[in-house]
Amino acid sequence: MGPVSLLPKHQKLNTQERDLAKMTHLQAGLSADTIEKARLELNENPDVLHQDIQQVRDMIITRPDIGFLRTDDAFILRFLRARKFHQADAFRLLAQYFQYRQLNLDMFKNFKADDPGIKRALIDGFPGVLENRDHYGRKILLLFAANWDQSRNSFTDILRAILLSLEVLIEDPELQINGFILIIDWSNFSFKQASKLTPSILKLAIEGLQDSFPARFGGVHFVNQPWYIHALYTLIKPFLKDKTRKRIFLHGNNLNSLHQLIHPEFLPSEFGGTLPPYDMGTWARTLLGPDYSDENDYTHTSYNAMHVKHTCSNLERECSPKPMKRSQSVVEAGTLKHEEKGESENTQPLLALD
Fold first, then answer.
1. Are 96 and 212 in contact (CB under 8 A)?
2. pTM score
3. Which residue intervals of 214-322 are DSSP H helices?
4. Where is the composition biased (Basic and acidic residues) (predicted)?
């Protein structure tokens, strides 16, 4: 027989209600389906949520070399979710998050959407973010690689824009649980452009996205990749975790394999989807608000007719309107492609989803 409470019945209920409110306020706003998904897939238990968070917080003392600039419950929770509530792994990710920022201070100076470098990258569509989520509730990010004007945007500024975008998106608890999808269209991406993707800057991106950010990536999908992107994959492969490699999918120009994993109703027409062509300025307008100038906008008729007008300033050289490149993808009969031996990893998924 268990211990008998001496509290009056109404006081016991009030105490239980207060405890329940304390344990579940961090799940406020989540749908019942998402809460259940967090329980089943991430081992999230509202009964011990605060204990889990505190265990991670208690580990901070073991890393006096790192400045942990934010340690509130909601912030630590996203790292636990990213590592399926394995406290040691969550703390390691938390430490790497702040260490990456300490080691790359220049990247995080003026880390705001109106920073000139970040703003240019956002206006040029790095990244694109679809408004609606896929059938698993994941947010879909797009990168049209050929639109990288290397005289206008450094790779570092594009990476900063992607990291800032993820920082904004990861505030949504639903996305902490459901995660993200990244689609990279390599149509018209030249060998000259690819030559700028050096091992050092690719390593910087992998460290920032795979090892140091609390996002769950369900897949990274390459479409229309040329042979030299396969070669680049070989270069970065040693830096990728096994789980990461398994989440990189190379589809070539056959979009049927992409549609097996992301339904066409969630994709723009560039990827064989039923949605209208993606407007490159959509996400930039969301982040920049009134700072998004119409002079910087993409005039949108058809995707082939998209042009970007650059505002001339001391930070941007004058140039003529630049046509945005259209995807060369086609929908062909086929199934999810698995390469022959020697290329087998290339059909697999770039970011870690633990």
1. yes
2. 0.79
3. 227-236, 242-245, 255-261, 282-288
4. 335-344
Angle, helices 199-206 vs 155-169, to 10°: value is 10
Q: d(Cα 299, Cα 293) in Å, to the nearest integer?
A: 12
User: How many Å separate Cα 319 from the centre of its chain?
Assistant: 31
* 307: amino acid identity, one letter: H
Cβ-proximal residues to 218 (8 Å cutoff; 6+ apart), any chain: 136, 138, 179, 180, 181, 247, 353
Whether the CB-CB separation of 258 and 223 falls below 8 Å is answered with yes
pLDDT in tens, 197-248: 988 899 899 999 999 999 999 999 999 999 999 888 887 888 899 999 999 9
- 3-state DSSP call for residue 182? strand
What percent of the chain is helix, strand and coil (3-state, nearest 5)?
A: 50, 10, 40
SS3 at position 144: strand
Phi, psi (degrees; rounded to nearest 5) at 184: -115, 120
Q: Reduce the DSSP state of residue 46 to 3 states and report it.
A: helix
Dihedral angle of Cα 231, 238, 175, 53, to the nearest 10 degrees: -170
Tokens 């990291």, residue located: 163
Confidence of residue 290 (pLDDT cuts 50, 70, 90): confident
What sign does the dihedral 23-172-267-205 (CA atoms) show? negative
CA dihedral 245, 247, 250, 251 (to 10 degrees): 160
- Is the distance from CB of 347 to CB of 219 less than 8 angstroms? no
The beta strands (E) that lie in the chain are given as 128-129, 139-144, 180-185, 217-223, 248-250, 298-299, 307-308, 322-323
What are the b/e assignments for 267-302, b being 16+ CB within 10 Å?
Answer: bbbbbbbebebbbbbbbbeebbeeebeeebbbebee
The Cα angle at residue 210 between residues 179 and 118, in degrees rounded to 5: 85
The number of beta carbons lying within 10 Å of the beta carbon of residue 3 is 5
Peptide bond into 127 cis (omega under 30): yes
